[in-house]
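Task: fold both queries, return C-alpha cells.
Query 1:
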Amino acid sequence: MASATSKSYFWKGFRDGTPFIFVAVPFGLLFGVFATEAGLTLVQTMAFTSTVFAGAAQFTALQLLQDNTPTVIIIISALAVNLRMAMYSASLTPYLGSAPMWQRAFAAYLTVDQSYACSIVRFEKEPDLSVPLRMAYFVGSVTPITPLWILSTYLGAVLGAQIPESWALDFALPITFLAMIGPMMRTFAHVVAALVAITVSLLTVVIPFNLGLLIAGCAGMVAGAQAELILERRKTRQ
C-alpha cells in the first residue's frame, strides 16, 4: 500500500513538473548552441551541463567566459546565482530533512527552480504528508525535466549553427523564471524582495562583469527579510 501511495505521488509530481519541459527543452538547446559557440567541446559541454545542472548559473558562467572575465569573478558570479539553491534547500529541510542521507544527497542534485517551485507548493498544501511521499513527489516533479535537459543540450551542441535564428530560443530563460516567480509572490515580503532586486539591478546595470546582479540579489534578500521581520513584529503587537 505504501509503495502504491508513493508511486501515486511520484506521478503527481511528474504531472506537475511536465509543463516545464516546454521551457527546459529550448533552454537546453540554447545552452548547447552557446557552449559550442564559446569554444567548448561536446564532452566539455555535456560534462558542464550534467555536473552543474543549473541553467542560470551555466549561462552566467558561459557569458562571462565569452567576455574574458577573470576566473575568480566567473566562479563568484556562478555561485552567487546559485545561492538561491541554498535558500531552496533551507526551505525544503523541514519537509525532507529526516530522509536518509543518500536520498537527501540525490535531492540536492535535483534541486532546481522547477522542482522547488512544484514541491514547496505541494508540501505547504499537504503538510501532513510523510517524508517518503514528499520525496516521491519531489523526484517525480523533476523527472520529466532532467533527461530532456541533458538531451536537448546535446542536440544544441551537435546541431549548433543549424538551428535557425527565427526559432528565438533565447525566450526560454525569461519565460521560465516568469512562470516560476509569478505563483510564488504569495506574501508582502516576496513582493518587496522582487521589487527591490529589480530596481537595484536597473540602477547598477553599468557595473562591469554583471556584478550589479549580485548586488541586486543581496539587496532583494535583505529587503525581503526586513519586510518579513516588520510584519512579524506587527503580528506580535496585535
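Query 1 returned. Query 2:
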Amino acid sequence: MTTQSFKARLRWSLPLVLVAGLGGAELAGRALGFGRPLLYRAAASGYEPTPGQSVHRLNNHVTINDMGMRGPATGATPRPGTKRVLLLGDSVAFGTTMTDDAKTIPALTQAALGPRPIEMLNASAGGWALENERRWLGAHGAFGADLVVLEVNQSDLTQGFAPASMLDVNANFPSRNPPGALYEIVTRYLAPRLHLTKAAFDPGSTAENDIAPEAEIQATVQSIRAMTMASGAKFMILYWDMRDPTTTAPDRRERLFAWARANGVVVVRPQLAQRPDADKLFIDAAHPNATGNALIAKALVGPMLEQLR
C-alpha cells in the first residue's frame, strides 16, 4: 500500500471510527438511564414530578404514579379497612434519583409496618420548601389520609417558595428530555465538574437561598396542620438533621419544637448525624442513603401507630 493510499483510507476511516465510538457511547449512556431524566411540570405547588413516569437510572427505579406521587399506583381514597399515611416533604422524603423506589423512607416504612393494613403515600419533590408543600396539599388534598407526616429539615426553616421558573433553568429540574444521553452527561455532569458551567443544585439543601422570614415559615407549618386536621387526619412532624448537625437557624428550630409541644404535635427526630456510623448513612451532606432511610423508617413506625389508634 502506498503512503498516499494509506492516508486516503485514514481520512475516510477516522470519521467512521469517531461516529461508531460516539454511537456506542450514546447507547451505553442510554442503557444507564441518561437521556431520559425525571421530568417536572409547573403546577399550583410551583412544580411537581410529571405523573405517569417510570425512570431507570444507574440501576435505580423511580416511579411517579398517575397521582404525581412517587411509588406504586393508588386510588384517590384508601381501600376499605385500610388506613393511609401521607408523607409530605422534599428530596429527603422523595429519596432523589440515587435511591430506588423500594429504598425511600415511605417505602421502607411500609415494609417495616409488615402486614398491617396501612398504606404509605409519598407526596414530595426535590427542592420543595414548606410553602410548596402547603400549596400541594391545598391543590390535591390529603387523599383520604388518616395521618399526615410533614418532613421538615433544617434548611426548611429558612427556605422560601421554590417557583416553577427554575424548571429547565436548573438542570436538576427538566420539563422535557434532552437531545440525548451524551448531551445530558456533558451538560449536566461533565461541564460543571470541569468548571465550565455552574453545577445544578437542590434549593432545599443549600445555603444559596434568600432567608425567608420566620413568621412565614411558622405560619406555613401551622397552615399545613390546620388543613390536615380539616381533612379529618392527624398531624405529626418528622424533623431531619442534615449531615452537618448545625443549623443556620437553631432558634427557629427550638421555637418550632416549642410550638409542637404546646399544641400536642408529635415530633420524630432521628439524629443520624450524631451516630458513630454517620459516614455510612448519607449520600451527601443533606440526604440519607438506603441504610439511613431504613433507620428513619424504624423510628417512624412506633409514633405513627400511636397516632393511628
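Both queries returned. Flag for query 2: The mean pLDDT is 90.
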